[in-house]
Amino acid sequence: MTIHAANFRELRLDNLSRDFGTHNAVKDVSLTIKKGEFIALLGPSGCGKSTTLNLIAGLLPATGGGIWLDDRRIDPLRPEERGFGMVFQNYALFPHMSVKRNIGFGLKMRGVQKSEIERRVGEAAALVRLQGQTEKLPGQLSGGQQQRVAIARAIVVEPPLVLMDEPLSNLDAKLRLEMRAEIRRIHNTLGATTIYVTHDQEEALSLADRIVVMRDGQVRQVGGPEDLFSRPDHLDVAEFMGFRNKVAGRVASVEGEHATVTVGDAKVVGRVRGTVAPGGQAWLAIRPEDLHPAAAGGAGLKASVVSTEFRGREFVGFSRMADGTDLSFLAHDRIAPGGEVTLAADPDRVLVFGGAA
Ligand code: ATP
């Protein structure tokens, strides 16, 4: 069997589309992924991430566009001819087979010699830190260990490209963190190329070299983690990257990279994203962790506190402005419900997007 991905330089999605009936699940997605990159496909549920991954894997035929490995078109090829490793949410290990046999299954199917299978399974088990567990059945392992078997099974065939669809979603918070680091370590060790689907922005930020934010089947923005975190191009991308407070206002003035926006009696300064014109309507986008009660007599957005929750070091406050806009913020002290607060943020932490309210 020919493994087409063996020595590729780049994988290219060229106006890739997939319809289900009249529904465009993936619309004209174009993206170039370089060998060695760790790419996260990020977006809310239903935005087309899994469909995109399944198209790359060959589990689903495209209804438009193509997939290229360098100058070879691969979308007509069967999944096994593409030679990509896959780790999915339901990692579906064979319950009656030992860890060792589960990991070695793909090699056996490829007719690899027994002694070679032994050696490579041993190496893969060591890479995911499962030495000493290989005689066990999957049912005798924890969720995290089973997940690692699934990863070992995918990487043992040394795929040049690994596709992962929410592989950590069944794990508890602590295991997720451990496995996250493990996945990145394995990627680095193997020098592999990884495409990783997640709806968790923190996971994408911590793992990926580049993040592809999707919405309604389309790519909204592609960028490095720092870039997307502080410079989202669109309001919806900003919201998805944690700028959860959205406040409607009117642009009073624009000074270079900053704009002053009037919200009721308050004036808020923020960094301009996109096109913002004086007199025009605008949205402010602010992360809850960047919005704090102003010092006594200070200016800011006025709101009435609905509740506060203790989060260990600080309190998260939930409040509502007179026009009904909800604002979440961070405070050092608990504030009683019904109390009035004036909330302010560092102008560099506030984004201003043009557009109607
Ligand atoms: P999630 O994070 O919830 O898995 P996603 O971003 O991966 O979401 P997809 O699974 O790619 O989203 O689905 C994209 C859209 O296509 C959704 O609206 C979904 O309902 C639809 N869809 C996916 N698979 C099918 C199918 N086999 N038949 C019909 N519609 C489908």
Describe this structure as you would to a colleague.
The longest helix is centred in the middle third of the chain and has 18 residues, at 173-190. By secondary structure, the chain is of the alpha+beta class. The relative contact order is 0.12. The protein has 9 helices and 20 strands. It has 2 domains: 10-236, P-loop containing nucleotide triphosphate hydrolases (Rossmann fold, 3-Layer(aba) Sandwich), CATH 3.40.50.300; 243-354, Nucleic acid-binding proteins (OB fold (Dihydrolipoamide Acetyltransferase, E2P)), CATH 2.40.50. Helix 3 (99-109) crosses helix 4, helix 3 packs parallel to helix 5 and helix 4 crosses helix 5. Bound molecules: adenosine-5'-triphosphate. Adenosine-5'-triphosphate binds at residues 20, 23, 25, 43, 45-51, 199. Adenosine-5'-triphosphate (ATP) is lined by residues 20, 23, 25, 43, 45-51, 199.
List keywords for this structure.
OB fold (Dihydrolipoamide Acetyltransferase, E2P); disordered N terminus; 20 strands; binds adenosine-5'-triphosphate; alpha+beta; Rossmann fold; 6-stranded mixed sheet; 36% strand; 9 helices; 357 residues
